[in-house]
Amino acid sequence: MKVLYVFEEIDAGERHQLLGMVDHGLDVRVICDPAAKYQDDLRRAGITVEHIQWGGRIDREAIARVRAIVLHEKPALVHVFVKIALSNVIRAIRDLPPKLVAYRGIVGNLHWLNPSSRRSFLNRRVDAIICVCEAIRQDLLANRFLGWRVPMEKVVTIHKGHYADFWRKPPLRLSDYGVPGDGPVIGCVAQMRKRKGIPALIHALEQLENPRARLVLVGDVADREVARCIRQSPARDRIHQLGWQDDASRIAGAFDIFVLPALRREGLPRAVIEAMCQNVPPVVTRAGGSPELVEDGVSGLVVPPGDADALAGALGSLLSNPEARRRMGQAAEQRIRECFTPERTVRETLALYEKLTGWRPAQAAPALAQQG
After folding, report:
1. Taking residues 291-314, what's their average pLDDT?
2. What's the predicted TM-score (pTM) here?
3. Is there a smaller number of Cβ atoms within 10 Å at the N or the C end of the chain?
């Protein structure tokens, strides 16, 4: 069966999934941004890659390109991984045969009265929506207005899998980024929007009994409150902002504790997965899919969102107990290795494809997805 996958960027989990689909006999075609990662890996596996840069939710040139590709390739199914592409693909194949699968990676921000939502995920042309965590699925099912709703049979949860060994690279030295090595390091990797809850993390740092604990923030800052909190914090000399870093995952591998203090709308946060793969114990909030990743008290700690006191308590308990950090770090890596595998993602996605098209996958060939 031929499947056309539509991306903007391609992340490591999607790379693993695409190569796994080839292993199971799918004839895979990919549309992505010209600068997307992992294209050489895809081509080596025999995957044809086309380039489209999405100019907006209604990009007439892109719509014509997609329609021409679908008419020529005749895929049985089109699987779209990015919202900006989804509205264009819907227009491109509105009257064509392929089944349409959409990927949803974030909670909320869909409304039946919003034309953008009705032209994308809430559009009837979408045959199935894959939710990267159960929290997203439940949010979609609860999204109702008058008689409008998403049918339950259209929505499925499939966690995006990662190979733990893919992220197990030597951690970078924090001293190279100006972080002194005189105490334990609490770290966060995120695009720091308001919903990421960074001010609560700063207030939690201030409450810690350990005066040598440092906080490292990696990522672009889009919340002005972060700068204000740092400026006014009595712990400001122990807070280090590294900005966006290409090697963020290797920096996270050097943390003693990884924290994602999100307030809402999380999907299945990749930064948490990357840290867990490197034996770094995570502290997360009950926001979106984070509690689906982390078993509270086993592979990390889970606290209420926006609660600086609870966050400080969780961080303090791990800082004072190196053995607990070691044990939870090992359990975190084991959880990703056993429960969030690309093989499981591929298997569950193929089951959905079979339901939509009747096509049955072949036995997997030697695992191309694990190479590299």
Report:
1. 98
2. 0.94
3. C
